[in-house]
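fyi for ur records
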Amino acid sequence: MGNGLVLFDGVCNLCNGAVQFILRHDRAGYFNFASLQSAAAQRALAEHGAAPTLNSIVLIDGGRMYQSSDAVLRIARRLGAPWSWAYAAVVVPRPLRNWIYGVIARNRYRWFGRREACMLPTPELRGRFLD
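which gave:
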């Protein structure tokens, strides 16, 4: 079982696609996952003093919580080349990165659609999903 916990909107097609991408490229099996709609995600957020949110991907890693563009960049950094090269975007000021992230987050259902229910992991991947 990995160390980083990725919390994602389980009914968002873009978010589910991102989880599938991470699973394909996380050769070390570092990341675990929980839908933001799950009790496990709500407990993890509460442990870090964060309010429940469906507007941001969240990464909990090394006892710290990262949201929005910070979470995306830190996840990419763990995936290996060439995906880890995206971490270079950390030099872009956070307000600008998060503004771009926010535009995508606000429009994700309209642009990418949504599911009626959270995704169900395959039996091989079930151990990497909480709840």
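Strands lie at 4-8, 31-35, 58-61, 64-67. thats all i got for now
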